[in-house]
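Hello Y.,

Per our agreement to keep a running log of every chain we model this quarter, I'm adding this entry. I've kept the format consistent with earlier entries: sequence first, then predicted structure.
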Amino acid sequence: LFSSQPDSLAMFEEGIIQGEAQTFAATLAETPANLKTPTKIAALISSKMPCTVTCITRDKNWIKSQQMEMFLSVNQGSAEPPVLLETHYKGSEDPPIVLVGKGITFDSGGISIKPSAAMADMKADMQGAATVFATIRALALLKIPIHVIGIAPFTENLPSGTATKPGDVFRSMCGKTVEVDNTDAEGRLVLGDALTYAATFHPSQIIDLATLTGAVGVALGSAACA
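Predicted structure for the entry above:
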């Protein structure tokens, strides 16, 4: 590598890490849903984190103990148990920034089922979570002096005899009750409980990332995201 800039090698290595982060997030999004069930994707992400990142996989019993009924309501139709993945990178002693990502590993819409053609890309309804963990991986590899926590509620949203029905009511982790009008609006439910949990870390900021609605394309077009 030849350059007149004395720090060119460091810049090159930083670029590689940033590029790897983008590829990691894209690969997670494009992985088939049967290969990234909540349990599988949590294990995969944890295995890719550097040793400076602590990974905690919260199971269904823990989720129940936190009274995350909104999160659990989305999972009711699936045979795959939900997982809340939590990662900690403590590059400083500052109050943490908490990143919360939507982690629906496949979204059929539930009882309010999507048309078949609209399900083609629903394996990627966890791109918010993919972005969160790719970001934390990059921050740790770059040794950025920042305190960041990543949280993602992972579940499938499927119809079945045990699935949530329109009109059902659930109590959230924060104590508010929520009536489900449309089971294809599941992102708000899983994020609601995850955001309440994020607040327990007394963060300086909470940032959430999610694929919530196709209407954003109508508002902003295909060249931008919100």
